[in-house]
Specification:
Oligomer: single chain
Radius of gyration: 29 Å
Number of helices: 29
Strand content: 5-15%
Distance between the termini: 83 Å
Strand order of the largest sheet: 2-1-3-4-5-6
């Protein structure tokens, strides 16, 4: 109409018309665009990309996209949507990654287009997008909410989404799995294995038991990959007995089966069982096998056994020790007080020690009050991971334990000045079907006042039978009474008392209290849990960032070697 009136259409006019064109009409308009010299207009080109994509001419859309000298966010979104319409999911993921390399941000439209492109694709494609999204700093929580907005009914996409959430947010992963079932989808072998991975992040084993039952009903009872996942899940949820039962009932075991069981024993401080199991392996061990064995020796103080295993790696099995193995050996020697030998081992390493190795040495220095060597380890950690608070916190604790509170304060100030933040201590406990989270002092918990009152009473009773607070661990610039109060409100103590207040709702009837903690349990809380287990006549299982502690009859399974 504009042409009939001898009016020259601009790029906005072409953009409007192209939105309603089919392929033939759009092709003619494309020729007119070029004739009128508007081919460089990003607005017109974006509309042409969309037109070609809707006409299933994605090759022509891609050629146009590549011809642009400057891309807008709409350009990227249009091309991703084009690949989505053409059911070329991997190409859509590739464009998404390229966006990041070009410094272009993404919005909800971008993600929804890529989401849709993953429906019907192979699991590798969907997983590739999840991985790319995470590596680009994407918010998994936002990803989760976007997923709930889509209408994708594809089992592969659901499984990939569960995969992305399994470790960072097991609860959301499990929620998606339940929703998957409600949508009428049938989980496959891979879905079950990923859900079991999520189950490993829960406090109790009840979720793993539920999935185990579904695995049997689905006819996957004898699948080795699922039995391996069950061994891992049960062990991480505190039930080494169930892990052992699954392992012993296996008709066919692969290397992962053996390694999973060895690792489970080590995690629960059962090094003797791990060392007895190892000779029974009918498969050639790999590097992971020896990490599991050395970790088990480390947790139990079996120094000579650890040295023997380390020496046998290359001599008997032809396996060259890697960084993980050296870190284990530094930990084994250091925990036993053989810190000089640990340092010498680091110096003899054929590769540069990483942060795990230096962290192992620092932990040993913390345990034995070795200040000078600790400074070296902290210096190395600051260079490798400047935003990691571990070095600062451990050095401050070393000074505090030795009564050098001024130096401890200096370290804290340096940490604050560097903008480094200590990871807050959190504990979780499962009551009924609800997980309760506790921070130090019980902040934000609706029953905080009642919990604190109950805790004060329990502390008083434990003091009568020998509990002495480790006030050297508290900050130096507060009164002794306040130091004790600070220790009393550590998150695991709050979680324990809440469990006692709700013992009738605990999994298993309340005889066993299970607590999960995100950082290492402190000396004071360890002593507290030991005495509380005897006084309350309950088994208390604490899973911290390093291992499991089984407290029963005022004794810990670690024998105070941790």
């Amino acid at each position: 109409m504009l042409a009939e009136r001898d009016c020259r259409p601009n790029d906005f006019a072409f953009t409007s018309v192209l939105s309603s064109c089919d392929y033939l009409c759009g092709k003619q308009l494309h020729a007119l665009v070029l004739k009128m010299g508007l081919g460089a207009s990003v607005y017109v080109t974006n509309s042409l990309i969309t037109m070609y994509s809707k006409s299933y001419k994605v090759e022509e859309a891609w050629t146009l996209f590549k011809s642009l000298s400057c891309w807008s966010l709409v350009s990227w979104n249009s091309m991703i949507a084009g690949f989505q319409l053409a059911k070329l999911g991997m190409h859509a993921v590739g464009v998404f990654v390229k966006m990041h390399h070009e410094g272009i941000g993404f919005n909800r439209a971008t993600l929804l287009s890529v989401f849709s492109s993953l429906c019907g694709s192979h699991v590798e494609v969907a997983t590739a997008f999840m991985k790319a999204y995470s590596e680009l700093g994407g918010d998994v929580s936002e990803f989760y909410h976007l997923f709930l907005e889509t209408s994708c009914q594809d089992i592969i996409f659901w499984t990939s989404m569960i995969t992305a959430l399994a470790e960072p947010d097991p609860a959301k992963a499990f929620f998606l799995y339940r929703r998957l079932l409600r949508e009428g989808l049938t989980p496959d072998l891979y879905t079950f294995s990923i859900v079991l991975k999520a189950c490993a992040g829960f406090v109790t084993e009840q979720h793993a038991l539920a999935i185990h039952s579904q695995v049997i009903k689905a006819g996957f009872k004898d699948e080795t990959v699922l039995r391996n996942a069950l061994i891992h899940a049960y062990a991480r949820c505190g039930s080494i007995a169930l892990s052992k039962k699954v392992f012993e009932e296996m008709g066919c075991r692969d290397l992962v089966s053996w390694n999973s069981m060895l690792k489970a024993y080590g995690l629960h401080g059962k090094a003797k069982e791990a060392l007895q199991l190892f000779p029974q392996m009918d498969l050639k061990p790999d590097t992971a096998t020896f990490v599991a064995l050395l970790s088990a020796c480390s947790h139990c103080g079996m120094v000579e056994e650890g040295l023997r295993i380390f020496d046998s790696m290359f001599k008997d099995h032809g396996i060259i020790p890697q960084l993980d193995h050296y870190a284990c050996m530094v930990d084994i020697l250091g925990r036993a007080g053989r810190i000089v030998e640990a340092e010498e081992l680091i110096r003899r390493m054929p590769m540069e020690p990483d942060s795990v190795v230096w962290s192992a040495l620092l932990g040993s220095c913390r345990k034995h009050g070795e200040t000078q060597l600790a400074k070296t380890a902290v210096s190395k950690l600051k260079q490798m991971e400047p935003e990691n608070s571990l070095g600062y916190v451990q050095m401050s604790n070393i000074y505090s334990s030795g009564g050098r509170f001024n130096e401890a304060g200096t370290i804290r100030k340096e940490m604050d000045g560097s903008g480094v933040r200590k990871e807050p201590g959190l504990s979780w406990i499962e009551v009924g079907n609800q997980v309760h989270e506790f921070a130090s002092g019980g902040r934000h918990h609706p029953q905080r006042e009642a919990i604190c009152t109950k805790l004060q009473g329990l502390i008083g009773q434990l003091k009568e039978i020998g509990y002495v607070p480790e006030i050297s661990l508290a900050l130096h610039d507060i009164e002794e009474e306040h130091k004790q109060e600070q220790l009393f409100h550590h998150s695991e103590k709050m979680a324990l008392v809440f469990a006692v207040m709700n013992e009738g709702k605990l999994h298993g009837g309340g005889n066993v209290i299970r607590i999960m903690k995100n950082i290492r349990i402190c000396v004071d809380c360890h002593n507290f849990m030991k005495l509380a287990s005897g006084f309350l006549q309950k088994e208390i299982i604490v899973r911290d960032s390093n291992r499991f502690h089984h407290f029963k009859d005022s004794i810990c399974s670690c024998n105070d070697y941790w």
